[in-house]
């Protein structure tokens, strides 16, 4: 009887712990709806405010991607962004990441208009980096799929600026 109840208890513990493990795994994967296709291995923050808090706390730059679901340019950039291993790796390890499908009330994030897609960098001192721009003078913070190497350079620049300035 002792052996039987020990076995039953062990099986119960195994069942409970595997359910728990699955629940924990699910919990860990929950924010992936926040990726919206930009990269499922990246930990995304939900709001600009949370992004600023995390940037300050972790001393990492915040990267804000403004986009819309029905914008073909956003879709094309998203695909290139998600498929680029170097970007995904940097975004995952060195940045606080936020993608937004609505405008923020922070006017600093739309210095030259509220177009999409646009990508802006905010350093841990909470300064919006107006000096990290894309290639187009009429839309300073926009990137196209062929600009991915340029975006990578700008991500590296955002990281360098932290080391040299802060």
Automatic annotation (TrEMBL):
The entry's protein name is: Anterior gradient protein 3
Under InterPro entries, the record lists: AGR/TXD, Thioredoxin-like_sf
Signal peptide feature range: 1-23
Matching Gene3D superfamilies: Glutaredoxin
Q: Which GO terms describe its molecular function?
A: dystroglycan binding
Cellular component (GO) terms are:
endoplasmic reticulum
SUPFAM superfamilies, sorted: Thioredoxin-like
Instruction: Keywords in alphabetical order, please.
Output: Signal
What family is this protein classified in?
A: Belongs to the AGR family.
